[in-house]
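Standup notes, structure subgroup. Blocker cleared on the zinc ion input:
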Amino acid sequence: MDVFRIAATLPVPAARPAPPLQLSLGPGVLETTQDVLRTESNGSREALTIWAGRPRDATTVLVSHVITPVVEADHDWLTISLPERTAIATYLRGEQLLAVADIHTHPEAAFLSKIDRRRPFSSRNGFYALVIPNFATDPPAAGWRCYVAIDGDWREVPLLDAVNGWPG
Ligand SMILES: [Zn+2]
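Run returned:
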């Protein structure tokens, strides 16, 4: 696992806001996510990062951390081992962070595939799954799509609704 953390003081730890969560991206989070995913995908395989942070108020989570797990991946699939999932959960608990979204690349079009829907990183209500097209080789935010977990299913939502000040 690799971790990028914003260079700023974090809000004090607090309980997870009730969905729908508003995400506020800390400085560099969007660019780092796109960079890491482009590098990890390397034009040939899916890659994934996790956004985590702390609540800033009753509805908004400040995304302060971009966590890149070690994955097994190829052109159109990706898995995270159980030990790596456990390591991430331990890290989040230790740092008093909430995981709020996962972000993964596709070789071409961005959409939440059947396998993505069956094997999410989290299916907690309000958890977001973002998909980035073209192995993240486009400019940051270009063509990203966003889905939210609701009662065991996934619904697409506009990124403008999920992420404050979304630039796309
Ligand atoms: Zn996918």
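Discussed briefly. The longest helix spans residues 82-95.
Next: hand off to the docking folks.
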